[in-house]
Amino acid sequence: MKNYIIILFVVLLSSCKNENTKNTSIAVETSPKVLTADEIIDKSIDVSGGERFKKSSLKFEFRDTYYQALRKNHEFLLVRVLVNDKDSIFDMLSNVGFERYHNDAFVKLEDSIANLYSASVNSVHYFSVLPYGLNDEAVNKTRLESEKIKNKDYYKIKVTFDELGGGEDHDDIFVYWVNKETFKVDYLAYSYAEKDGIGLRFREAYNERYVNGLRFVDYNNYKSKDVSIPLEQLGKSFEDNQLDLLSKIELENVKVDLVNN
Question: Averaged over 154-181, what is the pLDDT?
């Protein structure tokens, strides 16, 4: 009888250990997953239009200038049209490079000038469809410490670019604040080279609208009174009302058509 009790005790003890191990395993499996910078941006791209970006034809106006973007899988054509009376300047950036036309005539440019025009065209198109483009091969993403702005919680992602494939402005650095509930980019900041140092900008998204499934926003564009503030701290500066409104970035007459494969 004594031996039976001992055996029963061992069996019960073993069962308790197995049960505890099982419970511990469940607790680990149900704990919240820590998202990587890549996963956060992937989700942000999905809620902003996802695969539709890869097969879209976009048209919009920005500061009295006409823009058009055609994307089909990995091919793209970005266009800017400047019209002055009867004259038109067509700037076109594609997979094969940059070209400028004056009316119907091709304009031969020095490489340095062509690079400046190319960067200017790419910049407007880049900001028009954020966060699309943040998965390009030359993009490096780092997750920073989360932050709260206007009582909302944000993932904070730092973006840098490789020199190879990063374009004329590959030295620019960006920070994106991605809403933890919606995964939409509500704020962004960036630093860029100026003749007399480094420039800083902070943008606040507003006027969100979806056109044929793609998300577009306008921006309040702020500058910092103190250019020595680290780029990553501009969110706190905005929260503390330490930034000056410089301009508004507004896209007008936005149209989207989807391109068949």
Answer: 86
